[in-house]
Amino acid sequence: VLALAYGMVRLALPLPASPTVRVGLVQGNVAQEIKWAPSERRRILSAHLDATKEAAARGATLVVWPESSVPLPLTSNETYRTMLEDLSGRLGIDLVVGSVHYVPGPNGPEAVYNSAVLLSGSQGGKIVDRYDKRHLVPFGEYVPMRSWLGPVEKMVEEASDFSSGRRTAVFESGTARLGPFICFEAIFPGLVREIVAAGAQILVNLTNDAFLGDTAGPRQHLELAAVRAVENRRWMVRAANTGISAVIDPFGRVTQALPYGTAGVLVADVPLLEARSLYTRAGDAAGWICVLVCALALISPFPPRNPLRKGRDRA
Questions:
Q1: How many CA atoms lie within 13 A of 303 on its CB side?
Q2: Long-range contacts made by residues 246-254, C-beta under 8 angstroms, separation at least 24?
Q3: Of 264, 193, 255, 268, which is closest to residue 20 (Cα–Cα)?
Q4: What is the pLDDT of residues 221-232, one digit of tens each?
Q5: Rounded to 5 degrees, what angle do the CA atoms 217, 237, 89 make?
Q6: Beta strands in 171-288, from DSSP E residues, in sequence order
Q7: What distance in Å separates the CA atoms of residue 153 and residue 8, rounded to the nearest whole number?
Q8: 250 with 235: CB under 8 angstroms?
Q9: Apex CA 17: angle with CA 12 and CA 21, to 5°?
Q10: What does each C-alpha distance from 21 to 131, 175, 203, 271, 273 come to in angstroms?
């Protein structure tokens, strides 16, 4: 009852006034079966470039592409990188792009990461920061216990097993501090909490749900992401390859969205929030306190009094 009453009061209050940044979200709608085809690279790239120009024309100063947006490695393909650097610098916008990142070694790639890369328009489109996905999808991005499982392969074959990132990243985009996380990292409350605790004012989720198809999966993924916004009292922008790209307010309400299975551009003014929620500050402390109370009750040396037993004793 208290939770429902609190929710009714909070939802009736206006959102706090704060500075905003105009964000553009690109939804390319590239089917999974053609996403990594070399013959489709030019078309996929051109579609994302055109969508970015449209977002900039509508006033966006920050544009977000989905996870693994284009089937080219941004950091190690000079032609692709130069093209995006030129676009970012010429339009004067920051770009957050999902891309596979290869760390070179003497005998080929030493490590491969699923990454989000920030290009700064104020610095001529140069790459200024990168976040590497920390929670990888088992059997999708790597095979756990591969030495024991033998010939079991991943569902995604476009790269060798991905390596797990090691750091929480907060991107500096003009006056905004962005908290990037990738795909199903949205289901981990503690991971997103760390991003906000590190100073993120806006949550930025890059994802590719194309392999789920037009099922309940992409919609469930969106709902789970919305809970992260509620927990940390932050606006969230979500760029999804085939959808559902969305803007989510700190109460978990989807204020704008692009339907699944469509290509398009979404532009929104997103507030920059600073206040930290109870969950951001204390994490799972309340839950652990409940566990402790229950454990103490189980081991209590004082058994509960039974009023029926007392009556029988008198009789």
A1: 4
A2: 246/25, 246/222, 247/23, 247/25, 249/15, 250/15, 251/10, 251/11, 252/226, 252/227, 253/226, 254/222, 254/226
A3: 268
A4: 999 999 999 999
A5: 125
A6: 171-173, 176-182, 202-207, 235-240, 246-248, 254-257, 264-271
A7: 49
A8: yes
A9: 120
A10: 21, 8, 13, 7, 11
Is residue 133 part of the annotated active site? The answer reads yes
Angle between helix 189-197 and helix 216-232 axes, rounded to 10 deg: 40
| Pairing relationship of beta strands 235-240 and 202-207 according to DSSP bridges | parallel
Per-residue pLDDT, 297: 87
Any catalytic annotation for residue 67?
Answer: yes
Give CA–CA dist 240/151, Å, rounded: 32
Q: Is 183 designated active site?
A: yes
Rounded to two decimals, the pTM is 0.86
Cα–Cα distance measured from residue 156 to residue 201, given in angstroms and rounded to the nearest whole number: 33
* Residue 256 C-alpha from the chain's centroid: 17
* 150-207 pLDDT per residue, tens: 555 555 555 558 888 899 999 999 899 999 999 999 999 999 999 999 999 999 999 9
Length of the chain: 315
Task: Check 133, 141, 154, 185 and give the catalytic one.
Answer: 133
Which one of 35, 141, 154, 183 is the catalytic residue?
183
Q: What residue type is assigned to position 243 of the chain?
A: G
Kindly name the residue from 67, 141, 185, 231 that is annotated as catalytic: 67
- The answer to whether residues 248 and 256 touch, using CB atoms and an 8 Å cutoff, is no
